[in-house]
Amino acid sequence: MPRRPIGRRLAKHQPLAFSPFMRLLAFASMARRDLPHPKDCQCSEEISFDEKEKVPKLTRKEKDEQSSDSSDEEDSQGDVQADFEFFDPKLTDFHGVKTLLQNYLDDKEWDLSSFVDLILEQTTVGTVVKVADDEDESVFAVVTALNLARYKDNKCFSEVKEFLRKVCSEKNITKDLEMLLEKKAQDVGLLVSQRVMNLPPQLLPPLYDGLFDEVSWATEDEPTGELRRSFRFKSYLLVTKIYKLKNPQQRKPRRGEEDIEETIFLKPEDELFLELSSWSFTFPMCSQLVTSQEMKNYQLMGLVMAVEANKIPKFRQMLNSLID
């Protein structure tokens, strides 16, 4: 059942943060700039502090003049507002969605283009987020759920499964993973969710509510019995990224410092999914995307989770409570 686009006017605000680093990042992302297009910004798991290197050095006189003008400048700028709208995926979203998913499987070379095609062809379940009246129609977020068995003959899905098998080094989980990838594949939805880093967190509850409502509608409204059955998920499989503290036993906060967090969730909903998951495992990524002093003690990790479908109502409730 297609959904009418939803427009929301949102004032510029501090993105939701769960750690000192993410709070610092939130303030950095708000520093006197207009909302960027995806092609000019980083996705939620790609964070950079390179901007500070681009700030020119000022003389003492220039610094004093800048300081005296700062309050007037801030008052004149005010809040930046943007209308975000939810849309069914379409073929013209290809480049925007591909940009968001470019590191979905770390640095693996795989058929990402075909994977994006499958996302865009499934118009009854899935959402892209754009800014209203944007001539470029830039994509700021994408969320969908793809049945593992329905697309098992596609090369890109074979590559996803091959990747997951390769990075799973926990023997007690290997069997569970294999069960979802093969024997129970017809009941498993690969939940794909990616967005730009500073997307307003208030969009998250309606974004996920829309996804799971569409899954429910598809079990009744799809034209064939085979398609309707393909959305009767019993489990969801998620692939995402987090930051883990290196050698947590050796890292103790200094006097006056906040407690050091062992895990930084780049997407707040991932913490909820992990809490509700049946099993999960992490694996080291091949690259460290953040090269800042704040993150020198953290390692970028992949996180794979399995969440039973009967836990989704609880997830939706928790997400709404968290954002509210």
Automatic annotation (TrEMBL):
Superkingdom classification of source: Eukaryota
Protein name: Protein BCCIP homolog
Sequence similarity: Belongs to the BCP1 family.
Organism, scientific name: Camelina sativa (False flax)
Biased composition (Basic and acidic residues): 54-66
InterPro entries registered for this protein in UniProt: BCP1_family
Gene: LOC104783000
Chain intervals for the UniProt region annotation (Disordered): 54-79
Pfam families linked to this entry: BCCIP
